[in-house]
Design a protein that fits this description.
Elements: H1 3-23, H2 27-34, E1 46-52, H3 59-78, E2 87-93, H4 98-112, E3 116-119, H5 123-136, E4 139-142, E5 164-166, H6 171-183, E6 192-198, H7 201-213, E7 217-224, H8 232-238, E8 245-249, H9 252-265, E9 270-273, H10 280-285, H11 287-290, E10 294-298, H12 304-314, H13 323-340, H14 345-351, H15 354-357, E11 360-363, H16 367-375, E12 380-383, E13 401-407, E14 410-417
Parallel strand pairs: 1-2, 1-3, 3-4, 4-5, 6-7, 6-8, 8-9, 9-10, 11-12
Antiparallel strand pairs: 10-13, 13-14
Helix pairs in contact: 3-13, 4-5, 6-7, 13-14, 13-16
């Protein structure tokens, strides 16, 4: 970086802090007048949001995810925020429904004037949002949407800027893990498999990837409706060709009903569950039914410093699925804003990859250190609470995974799969 660029960073830091000090008393008035999608100017808070499943089929995870976003906000603001401005996060409940999430997104854009947000959780909710973010000039970072389709969504018209990124892994990874569990004799070693999946983009996308990774004969691809309460006919279809293994891509709410009806029907087969079913309460409530089932799940791979900062702030919620990824989603956006010297969705989109990959390592909770390095013209490499979060050109990382097995209602890790195993396989 040139000396002129370094001076610009230092100037932005100073003017941002001065503006913040001088306009604090007026920020309420200015905010009510300016609006828009730039997050305001001067010392106004930078408007951001979250759209998370506080209710609905993914509600077991929603509160932990939201707590993680709010923890990131605290760590950011305790360090004075990007550009010397605080980050204001307006949290919205997606209700795990695309239509509801779209309404909440529009209110965040039109009423709060957000420049970026964390969410949504399920791919079926994130995809329709991602189709609008570029035209709205808003950055979306999902912490839990894993469908491969999102690699190609969120670009502006000339495809020069991508406004959708994620800290969660692409389901191409998880499909490989599910296939590996079915293929290898130390786990199932199946000759025939069938796949049961929730009928949305997440379910179909992951089931297709798992099918492609399975070396044996696929004898069924069966979608299920989240709104149904009787899955007997669905199970009959799933087992009509006597599969040895079942790959199940779903959510806890419907999953509980499906597995109870499977158990009552005496269908048989060995099950491999997706990460969407990785909930402690789910397994404890089905202790006798899920015993021996396999589970493919991302395995947080954070540096000790990031893990400590995250776990200390989260307490009992630290183990919530994809909560570390939610923390990283907001933290990375704030870092991108500070590097850009501008609080806009485009600025985040154009800078978020660079703060995630190469340079001096910074960790969760170290926003002040990161700001100081950026102001001195240094590159930074954020080491997240979820993983190293090295974003590729599609603005998504590789994650470490774990193969787990359920035993007496508890998850036991059998194998850890390093990120390097996935390179060249996706």
């Amino acid at each position: 970086m040139t000396g002129m660029e370094k001076s610009r960073r230092a100037y932005l830091k100073t003017t941002g802090a001065v503006a913040g000090a001088g306009l604090t008393g007026l920020s309420g008035c200015i905010g009510s007048i300016s609006g828009g999608g730039s997050g305001g100017g001067g010392g106004e808070p930078i408007q951001m949001g979250s759209i998370l499943p506080i209710t609905g089929s993914l509600s077991p995870y929603g509160q932990g995810m939201q707590d993680a976003v709010n923890l990131a906000k605290k760590h950011i603001n305790d360090a004075g925020g990007p550009l010397g401005r605080t980050v204001k996060v307006t949290n919205k409940d997606s209700e795990t429904k695309p239509s509801k999430a779209s309404q909440k997104y529009k209110s965040l854009v039109n009423e709060q004037g957000i420049v970026g947000f964390v969410g949504a959780a399920s791919s079926g909710v994130s995809v329709p949002l991602a189709k609008n973010v570029a035209s709205d000039g808003v950055m979306q970072v999902s912490h839990a949407s894993t469908t491969p389709a999102l690699s190609g969504i969120g670009y502006n018209d000339d495809e020069s800027v991508k406004y959708f990124g994620r800290t969660a892994p692409n389901d191409g990874q998880q499909g490989l893990v599910m296939g590996r569990i079915m293929n290898e004799d130390q786990y199932i070693g199946a000759d025939k498999a069938a796949f049961l999946y929730v009928n949305n983009s997440y379910g179909k996308g992951l089931a297709d990837k798992a099918k492609a990774a399975f070396d044996g004969e696929t004898v069924g691809m069966v979608p299920y409706d989240k709104k149904s309460t009787d899955y007997t006919s669905t199970l009959d279809k799933l087992f009509e060709n006597d599969p040895d293994a079942i790959g199940f891509v779903g959510y806890p709410g419907n999953g509980k009903t499906i597995l109870k009806q499977w158990d009552n029907g005496g269908y048989g087969g060995e099950w491999v569950l997706s990460e969407g079913l990785n909930d402690k309460g789910f397994f404890q409530s089905l202790k006798s039914i899920t015993d021996g089932m396999y589970l493919a799940s991302p395995s947080p791979e954070s540096a000790k410093k990031s893990a400590s900062a995250f776990e200390e702030g989260m307490g009992d919620q630290a183990g919530t699925l994809f909560a570390p990824h939610a923390y990283d989603g907001l933290f990375l956006q704030a870092l991108a804003i500070h590097k850009a010297g501008e609080a806009t969705g485009k600025a985040i989109a154009e800078n978020i990859r660079s703060v995630s990959r190469e340079g001096t390592k910074v960790y969760a909770g170290q926003f002040q250190k990161a700001k100081d390095l950026l102001d001195d013209g240094e590159d930074i490499n954020y080491q997240g609470a979820s993983s190293p979060v090295d974003m590729n050109k599609s603005l998504e990382p590789l994650n470490r995974f774990a193969i787990m097995q359920v035993k007496q209602g508890k998850r036991e890790q059998l194998t850890s799969i390093k990120r390097s195993w996935f390179e060249g396989k996706l």
